[in-house]
Amino acid sequence: MAKCPLCSRRSAKRHCPAKGVKICPTCCGTHREVEIECPSDCTYLRAGRTYDEGRRRSPPPPQREFGPQFRHRHAGVIAVLAQAILSEREDTPSLYDNDVRDAFEALKATAKTRASGVYYETLPEGGAASMGLYRRIQGLIDRMMEPQGPGRDALRAGDVPDVLDFISVSLELHSGGRPKSRQYLDWLSSIAPAPTPDDQGGLIVP
Question: Which of 23, 73, 154, 204 has the fewest CB atoms within 10 Å around its CB?
């Protein structure tokens, strides 16, 4: 049996769709979503995530809870922002969970200053992927804060930090934590409703 091209020591037993060759199980488990950009439909990636979830200690409870009233009130906004994340992923294949985290940390900081009456924009510290998501989400928030049509209320500045916190909590609950992980993005894709014109329906919950 051929040797693994990554370590040159162990037998190559698993076909790696990202590399296009067979690699050994050890390198598969060690390098997936770290050095290897694994496609979401890789069976070994899915099995590895399940295995990691079983070994992971229970995450600490979120610092805050969001009751049914909050989720009902902001369902439309949450759904719109969730679809924006998925649209950015489609436009930017290099988007990872860490980029989403970086973008939302900056969005939350910006929202909190705006809610206090001061406009100071905090930008993401990451690269182009997190900046692209930041600009997309911030643009949506700005438009939703403008006067809306009959029967539709504008998004209030004081509600924006809470909505962003809600999405951040879902990210922490569903992200794998590896540098190139897209576990949260894959989870979001699996539950988000298919986008339709002017669609603000569907509830995205952690």
Answer: 154
Q: Kindly report, residue by residue over 139-165, the tens digit of the pLDDT.
A: 999 999 988 778 778 899 999 999 999
Report pLDDT digits (tens) over 163-198. 999 999 999 989 988 999 999 999 999 988 655 544
Closest CA to 80 of 26, 33, 144: 144
What is the distance of C-alpha 135 from the center of its chain?
A: 15
CB 3 within 8 A of CB 9: yes
47 and 21 together in one domain: yes
Same-domain check for residues 29 and 83: no
Using CB atoms within 10 Å of the CB of residue 15, give its burial: 0 to 12 exposed, 13 to 18 middle, 19+ buried. Answer: middle
